[in-house]
Design brief:
Helix content is about 65%, strand content about 0%. The chain is mainly alpha-helical.
C-alpha cells in the first residue's frame, strides 16, 4: 500500500507540474488530485 501511496503522490506532483508549465496563470491555484 505504501508503494501505491508513493505512486499517487508522484502522479499528483507530476500533474501539477505539467499544469503549471502549460498554464502559468494558475500557479496561485491549488491543483486538485
Amino acid at each position: 500500500m505504501k508503494s501505491q501511496f508513493c505512486v499517487n503522490a508522484f502522479v499528483v506532483l507530476l500533474t501539477s507540474t505539467i499544469n503549471t508549465r502549460i498554464r502559468p496563470s494558475t500557479i496561485n491555484t491549488t491543483p486538485t488530485p
